[in-house]
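Hi there, hope your week has been kind to you so far. Would you mind checking whether the tokens look sensible for this chain? I owe you a coffee for this, so here goes:
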Amino acid sequence: MRHRVIPPFLINSLLLLLLGVALLALTGCAATKGGWLSPVYPEQAIERQRFAMGDSDDVIGRLAIVRATEGDTLPDLARHFSLGINAIRAANPGVDLWGPKEGERITLPLTFILPDAPRSGIVVNLATMRLFHFKEANGAVTVTTYPVGVGTKERPTPTGQMHVARKAYLPTWYVPASIAEDHRKKGEPLPAQVPPGPENPLGEYALYLSKPGYLIHGTNKPASIGLNASNGCLRLYPESIETLYRDTPVNTPVLIVNQPYLVGERDGVLYLEAHAPAEGSNSGQATSLTGRLMEFERASGRALDWTKVRQVLAEARGIPVPLLELRRGAAKALPPAMEIAHPDTLYGKPDLPALRLDAWYVLAGELEDEMEAKRMAAIINHQGPPIPARVMARLTRSSGYRVVAGPFNDAGAARGAARRLKIDLDLDGIVIEPVGKL
């Protein structure tokens, strides 16, 4: 694919303006997180991954709320708090995925109903896109939970009982023929094998399952966690797979289920958690849920609010909702959502390299609306491997907001980024030559 190259004299003022804005930001007044009272609780007050199990509890965790600040995206908040993109998006209907408003309340769905499965080894629920790792020590059971990316409709993740057959640190990816053919059709040929490094989609750690061809592994595309985006494997954030790898011995059982509707008990209260079922999934799951709820109704001698049940199913926000007290004196509901302070920095949020006049860039797009330009830059920033991108102010009233990717050290890297923008996002990038030495 050929890319147009903009000569230096046409882009000189663009990059000089960009550098000036960057320097001004360094010397100007610090922005505040103000506009609201400081939350009572620090970030450390909320648990997000590891939980002690009660004897009969099926519900773990607690909801939290954080206020968005300038430059936040839901994928960045999701990664910091060990959530998948699907989960944080479903819990916050109407919130812009790539540009929430400053001060907007973001619900962090850190309460989970455990899958209806044995509590041993690894259990993955494809419908909720979460992995649960159960461990017993000294008679006590703990569960550690991580969000996962799962297979697409065309290449779904299989369900059923498996086990960890072997483990590998810095694995080599041997490209399956079907995947190689897909990439060839897109004009992105792959080698027969990809060694460890930033281009390897397996990341740094891999657990090979007993079902041939399927793995639990890391990723070089963190923004795909919580999406139907893999070729059937289970992807974890790099920081999550490292912990799971160290905590999981070979032969650990792995059970993969698909349960969009979850029912569980905590402190004598029955809860329902609903997720949008996958397209074409078995409608019998809703019928089975109705039967289970009717059994609880009969056993408790109390009537369910079936209008509420239908509302929970229709909204499918992935948050446990109390339905029924199963015994007298039971707690009315889970503790209320805890508002926590916004972290000073979000773990894993893409960093933008410093601007350089001696570097190559790619003009990814020019948009009239500033918010749309910021949204495009955020999406590009979350590609994997990362492509740094930023929004540049208008040069004139008649020009738009430019989204520029870079810096890149050479023409090959810039052209490679432009090719990926075309393949992944259907953007026609324009390669920009260096202006000169700083």
The two ends are 31 Å apart (CA to CA).
